[in-house]
Amino acid sequence: TNSTFPESFLWAAGTSSYQCEGAHLTNGKTLSVVEKNINNQYADPSVASGHYQLWETDVELMKDLGLKAYRFSISWPRILPNGRGAVNQEGINFYRNIIAKLKEYHIEPIVTIYHFDLPQCLQDEYGGWSSRKIIKDFEEYCQVLFDHFGNDVKYWITINEQSNMFQLPYLMEFDEQLPLEKQKFEMNHIMTVAHAKAIHRCRQTIADAKIGPALGIIPNYPASAKPEDILAAKHADDLRTYLFMDLYMKGKYKQSVWNYMVHKGVEPTIEPGDMACIKTAKPDFIGINYYQSRVVKFVPKDTAEKELKLNYDGEADETQFENIPGLYEGAANPYTNKTQWDWEIDPVGLRYLLNDIYDRYDVPVLITENGIGTMDELTEKKEILDEERIDFLRNHLIQLHLAMQDGVKVWGYVVWSFIDLLSTSSGFRKRYGLVYIDRDDTDLKTLERIKKQSYHWYQAVITSNGQS
Ligand code: BGP
């Protein structure tokens, strides 16, 4: 990238539990909501990348790659099969072994507490995130993690992509009898309180921990210089980014979004003590998952609402962008290339976003995810020549470095993903890894790990601290 990063910069790569572990009903673990919902649709979660069995091989590959840090998530139903109460020792041992090996190799663990995998039993018992009962159970789960792993894990991520959980159909379960938007804002409030409680517990338990959320952020650009389009982009940012960021960082609801919710009658119930709890739980950093930017244009109130349609198979251009009559509708960007799944490739957007977030919230940033989904195929020589991935990562790192020169404090970069994973939206058709896993959706093959060309490239980047 021809850029020199600070000596302490954390070069990392990431995974999440249900996307790589497999063994989803093994050794005490029970089902999670996301596993139930993706089951049978694309690849099933019973094997995933086989990481539960092959974790030692995977950590050796991390060592060889030269990773300074590894981001992974802990599975709540592997630790607490009933959602609360009895701790599953085999679950604790699994993560304890991984963490010990990482420490031995001087790879800093960055642990995500919650990456979409709510225990299904809590969904069935009281409706999961729709009930305030979950706050206590989540706190208990966090406390178990801090008590067991607090000595070795310094970096914690509370909740992954709180905003996306309300956009994508397979990450949450909703009550079909109740108005959807109201449910989403209620759940969002409950989840924010739970996130805040996790921070408080962490502060009480681990003296020198660094803890923060990871938000998936898509910056919105106006489709034209038409004033209505400029305002539409602002509305989209308010609703999809600043609502969450203001809660995390300022401990309050963004007024314009609150008024929007009241106007529609979908504002959440706030109980006494909630806002104080949120306000006093200031994160040490913000984790940003960045994949793409988005163009939006104004759409008048009286136009018909269109249903969101995402391109899951990477084939035709099926995308129907988010559409909220009276506010905005997504549109294609004529100036950027797209991935096979129609995600806009926009490295400059990362610099733009980082400057924007840092100016508004004055908080250090960890890039918790950045990467590209592709259909990688083995050559006859059993190689993966993923130049598209190398270009993507290189161009984003260049912009990241420019953002740091602008003054944004960024202390680490996590490539999504370390090994190929079960893509929640598209199974094993869509791969993100630096390491290839020899399997496809239906055929498990050998699960052999094969280093991609991007692995070797990233290895050189780490060794030269960004120069290569
Ligand atoms: C983020 C999630 C990851 C990962 C990534 C790629 O939203 O935090 O878990 O899946 O997106 O998404 P996908 O696999 O759907 O392309």
Question: What does it look like?
Answer:
InterPro entries: GH, GH_1_N_CS, Glyco_hydro_1, Glyco_hydro_1_AS. Belongs to the glycosyl hydrolase 1 family. This is Glycoside hydrolase family 1 protein. With 468 residues, the chain is an alpha/beta fold. The chain has one domain: Alpha-Beta Barrel (TIM Barrel). The protein has 14 helices and 16 strands. It has helices at residues 17-20, 33-38, 51-65, 76-79, 89-104, 120-126, 133-149, 180-205, 227-250, 255-264, 274-279, 347-361, 387-406, 453-463; strands at residues 10-14, 69-73, 108-114, 155-160, 210-216, 220-222, 286-289, 294-297, 323-324, 328-331, 337-338, 344-345, 365-370, 410-416, 435-437, 449-451. The strands form 4 sheets. The chain has an 8-stranded parallel beta barrel, surrounded by 4 helices. Strand 9 and strand 10 form a beta hairpin. The longest helix has 26 residues, at 180-205. The chain is globular. The chain starts with 9 loop residues before the first strand and ends in a 5-residue tail after the last helix. 49% of the residues are buried. The site of 6-O-phosphono-beta-D-galactopyranose (BGP) has 14 residues, from loops.
